[in-house]
Amino acid sequence: xxxxxxxxxxxxxxxxxxxxxxxxxxxxxxxxxxxxxxxxxxxxxxxxxxxxxxxxxxxxxxxxxxxxxxxxxxxxxxxxxxxxxxxxxxxxxxxxxxxxxxxxxxxxxxxxxxxxxxxxxxxxxxxxxxxxxxxxxxxxxxxxxxxxxxxxxxxxxxxxxxxxxxxxxxxxxxxxxxxxxxxxxxxxxxxxxxxxxxxxxxxxxxxxxxxxxxxxxxxxxxxxxxxxxxxxxxxxxxxxxxxxxx
Length: 246
Known about the structure:
By secondary structure, the chain is mainly alpha-helical. The chain has 2 domains: about 1-140, no CATH class; about 180-240, no CATH class. It contains 12 helices and 2 strands. Strands 1-2 form a two-stranded antiparallel ribbon. The longest helix has about 30 residues, at about 1-35.
């Protein structure tokens, strides 16, 4: 009740709509990055594997899975927010049934939600919970998010521009996929990730920079020796030895 008093009903509804806007970005990422065509890249890393003419590296699948986890987190936050507006039991019952693998339970959960919720974006929320394809989910958010088809490399850079909304793991997966596919990132995106508070994100940024610009990497390595993460520090020392930096 305290939260509702501070932000008001309209404030909670805005937060739910913002979660749906974020979901639109997640779905756009999944749609544009799924099954990347091999012809969209050049000089591919040996790590990349060709299967039926598609880029199907572990990094691609890792990123898609990371985006799917972001979807689950955003939906969970929507249900938490709805608990501020509607009876707790009804929202919990809807969430429980919707998470079920049973189609009948899913239908029951959606019915509960439909009968309980009256927010302006209710239709969009119900549509994305009906377990449609990602393309259909994205289409259901058309009144909230304007989708523009992007080349995979452009979509990845767009996701990195939204890095403050991504999980650390999703951010690291973006960097690893950019490295494996040899896609260019902006200098700002790379440098910000090198300063990220999470070690494995910095580690992924180092690996990307090694592929993208060894000259820039050599200039930066001496300043990275004091990294607080032992794994990253060891990676830096290994690169310093490899490049013969004094």
